[in-house]
What does this fold into?
Amino acid sequence: EAGVTQFPSHSVIEKGQTVTLRCDPISGHDNLYWYRRVMGKEIKFLLHFVKESKQDESGMPNNRFLAERTGGTYSTLKVQPAELEDSGVYFCASSQGAPGIAFFGQGTRLTVV
Amino acid sequence: GQNIDQPTEMTATEGAIVQINCTYQTSGFNGLFWYQQHAGEAPTFLSYNVLDGLEEKGRFSSFLSRSKGYSYLLLKELQMKDSASYLCAVSRYSSASKIIFGSGTRLSIRP
It folds into this structure.
């Protein structure tokens, strides 16, 4: 069974550009989460989807970040325009039960220069 | 607010036992998780404690004391592949979907 997959694995963009990260959860998992780890800091929650609905987006840093999950399958996280402080590793996770018992993807390492 | 503390780094010897401690301060505590993360890889779920006591799963055990805001992860018969970061994380009743992570403990195993 395929795990959580994220694309791209790495992205280097210039400040002001737009980047879209994609996450494919484990098939059948209704819950999908986005997390971010900024250099030297702990992993921080961004938002939670249940199917196609945003259950909790309290961790989204600002309105430059937009997450979607059309059709309740894969999800995208768009950063527009990207700033230097957006650099970090963006993790996606999915679960069918308790949110902490989630399967994480390998992450997308975003570098804004 | 919430605060999770765990040691930044630990070193242990192959075949030995190591205990990684985690203390937390959070209102509306729901449950505590431990994750393992090898460098450059995805965090992998290890354990989930809701009630006080010890949960054993093979070489790994996790303990929780809700009254003391304290947990530990116990790793027995250490193997070189256990070298990784171990992340303590908590959830709250008020926002059960949001998992709050500690900074992690980087464990190095020496032969």
In short: Chain B touches chain A at residues 4, 31, 33, 35, 40-45, 48, 87, 89, 91, 95-104 (CB under 8 Å).
